[in-house]
C-alpha cells in the first residue's frame, strides 16, 4: 500500500481515499455503528469511497440514525440499510441474519457468541457474493478484537460465564476472554473458509479509543488495565479516525492477501507481538476447541 504512511496515526478516511477503487460499488455490513463509536466512524469513512450499500446492525434505529445522516451528508446517493439486532440475544441475532435472555456472561455473549451466530448465519450470503459472476468478488470478515486478549488466563473452558465459580469474576478477565475468543474464532474461520471460498477473515486491535463504551470504565478499572496491559505506562489513545484505520485497511487493501498466514493486525500492520496479541490466541488447537464449545453453547452446528 505505497503512497500512504501506515502506523498508529493513520486516519480511516485517508485509507479509504487511497483505496477508493476497492470500496466503490461494494457492500459493507457493520455492527455497533452507534454515534461516537468506531463502527460509526468506519461507516462515515467508507462513505468517502462511494460504496453501493452500507448495512448497519444495531439495537435501535434512533441510535443509528445519526450515523446514517452523517453518511448521507458525505454522499446522499449511498444506500443505507438498518437491521435491528441485539447481540446479547442469540434469537435476535438469528432474526437479523434473516433466517426466519440466554444466560451467558455479558461480554462473552456480546463480543463472541453473538458474532459467532451472526457470521455463521450470513455465511451463505457471503459465499454467494464471493462466488458471483465471472470474477470472484472481494469478501472479508473482520472481527474487532483488541490488545485485551493478553488479559486473563484464556478461555475458561468449563465455566466461560463464571456461573460455576462466580466469586472468580473480574471485569478485565471476562473482557480478555471475549477478546481472545475474537482472535480464535478468526483463526477457525480462516481454516474453514480461505482455501474453499477465498473469503479472508481478519482480527485486529484498533487501539485505545475514547468511545461511548468508556462510560462504563471508572478510574479504578482504568488504572487496573493500564497496569496489566500497558505495564503502568500511559495508554496511547487514538482518535476515532485513527481507530477505524486498521479495520478499513483490512477491508480494502488487497496487499494484505500476500501474507498468507497473517490474521491479526494492529496500527494497520500484521503482528504477532505478544504485547499486542496473546500467543495462546494464535493457537489453532485452541481455535478448534473454542469452535466446538461455541457450537455447544449456542445449540447449533455449522457445516462448510
UniProtKB/TrEMBL annotation:
Keywords: Oxidoreductase
UniProt cross-references to Gene3D superfamilies, sorted A to Z: NAD(P)-binding Rossmann-like Domain (3.40.50.720)
GO MF term set: oxidoreductase activity
PANTHER family, alphabetized: RETINOL DEHYDROGENASE (PTHR24320), RETINOL DEHYDROGENASE 11 (PTHR24320:SF283)
Similarity comment text for this entry: Belongs to the short-chain dehydrogenases/reductases (SDR) family.
Name of the protein this chain belongs to: WGS project CABT00000000 data, contig 2.21
Provenance organism: Sordaria macrospora (strain ATCC MYA-333 / DSM 997 / K(L3346) / K-hell)
Lineage per the UniProt record: Eukaryota, Fungi, Dikarya, Ascomycota, Pezizomycotina
Amino acid at each position: 500500500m505505497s503512497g500512504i504512511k501506515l502506523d498508529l496515526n493513520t486516519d480511516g478516511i485517508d485509507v479509504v481515499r487511497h483505496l477508493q477503487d476497492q470500496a466503490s460499488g461494494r457492500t459493507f455490513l457493520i455492527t455497533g455503528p452507534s454515534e461516537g463509536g468506531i463502527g460509526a466512524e468506519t461507516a462515515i469513512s467508507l462513505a468517502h469511497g462511494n460504496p453501493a450499500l452500507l448495512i448497519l446492525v444495531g439495537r435501535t434505529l434512533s441510535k443509528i440514525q445519526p450515523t446514517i445522516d452523517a453518511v448521507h451528508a458525505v454522499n446522499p446517493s449511498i444506500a443505507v440499510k438498518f437491521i435491528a439486532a441485539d447481540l446479547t440475544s442469540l434469537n435476535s441475532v438469528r432474526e437479523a441474519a434473516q433466517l426466519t435472555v440466554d444466560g451467558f456472561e455479558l461480554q462473552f455473549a456480546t463480543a463472541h457468541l453473538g458474532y459467532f451466530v451472526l457470521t455463521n448465519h450470513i455465511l451463505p450470503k457471503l459465499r454467494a457474493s464471493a462466488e458471483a459472476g465471472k470474477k470472484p468478488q472481494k469478501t472479508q470478515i473482520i472481527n474487532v478484537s483488541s490488545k485485551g486478549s493478553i488479559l486473563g488466563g484464556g478461555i475458561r473452558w468449563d465455566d466461560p460465564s463464571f456461573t460455576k465459580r462466580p466469586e472468580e469474576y473480574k471485569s478485565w478477565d471476562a473482557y480478555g476472554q471475549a477478546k481472545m475468543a475474537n482472535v480464535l474464532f478468526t483463526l477457525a474461520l480462516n481454516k474453514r473458509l480461505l482455501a474453499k471460498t477465498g473469503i479472508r477473515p481478519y482480527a485486529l486491535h484498533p487501539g485505545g479509543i475514547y468511545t461511548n463504551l468508556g462510560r462504563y470504565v471508572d478510574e479504578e478499572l482504568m488504572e487496573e488495565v493500564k497496569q496489566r496491559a500497558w505495564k503502568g505506562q500511559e495508554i496511547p489513545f487514538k482518535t476515532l479516525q485513527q481507530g477505524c484505520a486498521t479495520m478499513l485497511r483490512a477491508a480494502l487493501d488487497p496487499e494484505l492477501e500476500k501474507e498468507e498466514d497473517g490474521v491479526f493486525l494492529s496500527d494497520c500492520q500484521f503482528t504477532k507481538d505478544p504485547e499486542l496479541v496473546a500467543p495462546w490466541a494464535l493457537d489453532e488447537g485452541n481455535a478448534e476447541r473454542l469452535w466446538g464449545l461455541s457450537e455447544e453453547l449456542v445449540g447449533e452446528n455449522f457445516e462448510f
